[in-house]
């Protein structure tokens, strides 16, 4: 992750201000002549090291020309990051980064000679098609501090001496050997997002999160992280931390229980739980329940259900309120250390990035202790007093609030407290209490990283590392709690689980399998940049999973009655339909077949246009799975001229000419309600005033829901329960809705069988 406040030059503002002073230090040692190579090393040192004390130490070595190459500088940086406490062992440092090591041309020549001698036979056989990088790598491994260019020049010279100049044959392109295609594995296909499109590569989410893949620090090596603040107590605290955790990776998913999780949270769940799982660690589900005004029990329940629905089990379920007593004790300690004070500025006064400084910032410690106790006892009204921390955050915000007064009973602690801690105060300290190793959060929290480190260090408690990643957003939707509430209040959607939304409860109700959502997160990848994706990419993931999971059934949405006048039996026949036609070993189900069947209205035309292959006079079709072909004999219409029934004859398919098409049908069906969903909004970014000047509520798609009240579905689905999924042949994937009741099943269309080109 880039350091907080990084500028386009690669230097943070603080480091860019330090560079002139370090250049002055170098000129003091070298005189006015500062060569380009030394200047580049100085710039790189300032760009890559935040600690000013160690930076001065490194500048001294660069200025004295004891560190001469970027290779030595990288080794020096690794050493000082691994040894954050003073004093540094100078002799050990110099050994670690090759200070004073002189690699002579003779040594380079001998090393290259030895490597070429080792590979002489292959070189003579392959000539200039041989991988010369291999020679360089082996020579360099023998001479760690040798200059890379000098090694390359020596390799080129000795190869030329051995092989002579390149011939025309050497210049011909080497034919590519055909690679054996590996057998498919069960790994998820991950993908790289490029310009909003997804290119597949076989990397599962766990592979993306495992080990060195993310360049995260190892447990206990927090101090090696860019920007991590080291204090005299850091190493002792890390030692205690390792003793408690045994070096185990610990993460947490910390939602606020004031709304329903959405598709963006799915990435956070996969990232936090997945990173712990991929690295043999544990993940806590911790409710950030510090705002009792907006919290409801239904949100606590729904959040845990969604985490478990996605396939993850928390190591422990905790609450910020579990630690209210400890957080209060630490707040008192922060005041005693002169790092917090009670303030009486109004909320309106301290909003924004440039509020006036608090006139109470320097009030005596004893006075703040008394006033904070008065806050706890309820002697101040809401908004009359806050506890503020003495720091400036990355975004320039000064003295964030740690506690505020709220006379609202808490769902777990009741009336015990009338002061509640804020996110800025609570989050890092709860991470510390639970000994979290990697505090993973989205990029908007980067501005709070400095307060995260500051607060833990101000209290001398274990300080985890905050890592940021890019949010996952979807087009054609809104996910903010406030806006979803507006949609519910205005009747645009039924509730948080309306299948047109992209909350996780809505996606489950619509029929999206959890595996599809996890696969989608894997395809988006673990990116630092924010990812804004098209819904059709999520739908594609659903099709892949449902194709393997959803048994087949037949349904007719716009029924047309068909009477078979020469039906070959006096009673209904039983037809065996494979649950999965591509794999009949997965079983069959029976459906009745009798003289009256129903087909889709759109599967019949009175006149067959060019290219039309379904039922028409003179153009028979097959009925799927029956072994029969039907041909139109008579068309029955109502008074308005609308076709209401067909009379047909049937012929066994093994004695008739093969038809152009086979269509689905139902017989003795169940009458069901089917809900067909389209996008809720008309524009990609309904919250963008430039796209939708009238606001998101003006952008609602009037055709986002179509209800088919009397759809006909074959009786094989009769025993299905809510959230069971089916592929209705030729129509799409459907899921049983919880509104289903005895005598009237309700189905939601999850996705069509194929992507609509107009939506891509």
Automatic annotation (TrEMBL):
> What keywords are assigned to this protein?
Aminoacyl-tRNA synthetase, ATP-binding, Ligase, Nucleotide-binding, Protein biosynthesis
Ranges of residues in domain tRNA synthetases class I (E and Q) anti-codon binding? 662-737
Q: Where are the stretches annotated Disordered?
A: 170-196
Q: Which residues form the Glutamyl/glutaminyl-tRNA synthetase class Ib catalytic domain?
A: 248-547
PROSITE patterns hit by this protein: AA_TRNA_LIGASE_I (PS00178)
Which NCBIfam families does the UniProt entry name for this protein? glnS
Q: What is this protein called?
A: glutamine--tRNA ligase
Species of origin: Todus mexicanus (Puerto Rican tody)
Gene that this sequence comes from? Qars
């Amino acid at each position: 992750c880039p350091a907080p406040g990084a500028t386009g030059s690669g230097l943070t503002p603080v480091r860019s201000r330090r560079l002139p002073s370090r250049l002055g230090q170098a000129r003091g040692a070298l005189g006015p002549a500062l060569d380009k190579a030394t200047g580049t090393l100085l710039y790189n040192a300032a760009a890559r090291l935040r600690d000013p004390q160690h930076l001065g130490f490194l500048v001294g070595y660069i200025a004295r020309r004891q560190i001469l190459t970027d290779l030595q500088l990288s080794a020096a940086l690794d050493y000082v990051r691994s040894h954050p406490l003073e004093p540094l062992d100078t002799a050990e440092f110099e050994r670690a980064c090759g200070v004073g090591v002189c690699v002579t041309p003779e040594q380079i020549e001998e090393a290259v000679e030895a490597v070429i001698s080792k590979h002489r036979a292959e070189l003579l056989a392959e000539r200039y098609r041989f991988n010369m990088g291999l020679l360089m790598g082996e020579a360099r491994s023998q001479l760690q501090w040798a200059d890379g260019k000098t090694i390359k020049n020596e390799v080129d010279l000795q190869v030329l001496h051995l092989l002579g100049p390149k011939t025309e044959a050497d210049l011909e392109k080497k034919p590519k050997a055909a690679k054996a295609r590996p057998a498919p594995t069960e790994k998820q296909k991950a993908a790289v997002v490029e310009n909003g499109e997804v290119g597949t590569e076989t990397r599962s989410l766990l592979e993306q999160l495992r080990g060195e893949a993310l360049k995260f620090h190892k447990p206990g090596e927090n101090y090696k992280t860019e920007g991590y603040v080291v204090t005299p107590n850091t190493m002792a605290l890390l030692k205690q931390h390792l003793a408690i955790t045994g070096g185990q990776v610990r993460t947490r998913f910390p939602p606020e229980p004031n709304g329903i999780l959405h598709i963006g949270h799915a990435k956070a769940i996969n990232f936090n739980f997945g990173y712990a799982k991929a690295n043999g660690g544990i993940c806590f589900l911790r409710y950030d329940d510090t705002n009792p005004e907006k919290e409801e029990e239904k949100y606590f329940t729904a959040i845990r259900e969604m985490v478990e629905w996605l396939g993850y089990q928390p190591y422990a379920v905790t609450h910020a309120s579990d630690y209210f007593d400890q957080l209060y004790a630490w707040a008192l300690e922060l005041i005693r250390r002169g790092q917090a004070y009670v303030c009486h500025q109004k909320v309106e006064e301290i909003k924004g990035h440039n509020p006036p400084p608090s006139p109470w910032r320097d009030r005596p410690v004893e006075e703040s202790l008394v006033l904070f106790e008065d806050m706890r006892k309820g002697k101040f009204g809401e908004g009359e007093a806050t506890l503020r921390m003495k720091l400036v955050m990355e975004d320039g915000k000064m003295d964030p609030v740690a506690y505020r007064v709220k006379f609202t009973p808490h769902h777990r602690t009741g009336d015990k407290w009338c002061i509640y801690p804020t996110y800025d105060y609570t989050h890092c300290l709860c991470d510390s209490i639970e000994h979290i190793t990697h505090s993973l959060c989205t990029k908007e929290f980067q501005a709070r990283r400095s307060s995260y480190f500051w607060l833990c260090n101000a209290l001398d408690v274990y300080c985890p590392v905050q890592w940021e990643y890019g949010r996952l957003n979807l087009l054609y939707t809104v996910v903010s709690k406030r806006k979803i509430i507006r949609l519910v209040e205005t009747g645009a959607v039924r509730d948080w689980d309306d299948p047109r939304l992209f909350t996780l409860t809505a996606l489950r109700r619509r029929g999206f399998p959890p595996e599809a959502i996890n696969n989608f997160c894997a395809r988006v990848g673990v990116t630092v940049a924010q990812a804004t994706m098209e819904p059709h990419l999520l739908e594609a993931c659903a099709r892949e999973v449902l194709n393997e999971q959803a048994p087949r059934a037949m349904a007719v949405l716009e029924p047309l009655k068909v009477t078979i006048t020469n039906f070959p039996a006096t009673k209904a026949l039983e037809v065996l339909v494979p649950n999965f036609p591509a794999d009949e070993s997965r079983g069959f189900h029976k459906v009745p077949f009798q003289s009256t069947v129903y087909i889709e209205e759109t599967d019949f035309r009175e006149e067959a246009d060019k290219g039309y292959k379904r039922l028409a006079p003179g153009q028979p079709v097959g009925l799927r799975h029956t072994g029969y072909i039907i041909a139109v004999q008579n068309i029955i219409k109502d008074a308005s001229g609308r076709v209401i029934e067909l009379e047909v004859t049937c012929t066994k398919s093994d004695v008739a000419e093969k038809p152009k098409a086979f269509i689905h049908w139902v017989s003795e069906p169940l009458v069901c309600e089917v809900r067909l969903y389209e996008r809720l909004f008309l524009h990609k970014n309904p919250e963008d005033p430039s796209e939708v000047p009238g606001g998101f509520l003006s952008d609602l798609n009037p055709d986002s829901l179509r209800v088919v009240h009397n759809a006909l579905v074959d009786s094989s689905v009769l025993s299905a329960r809510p959230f069971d999924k089916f592929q209705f042949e030729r129509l799409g994937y459907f899921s049983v809705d919880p509104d289903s009741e005895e005598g009237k099943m309700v189905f939601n269309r999850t996705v069509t069988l194929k992507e609509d080109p107009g939506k891509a």
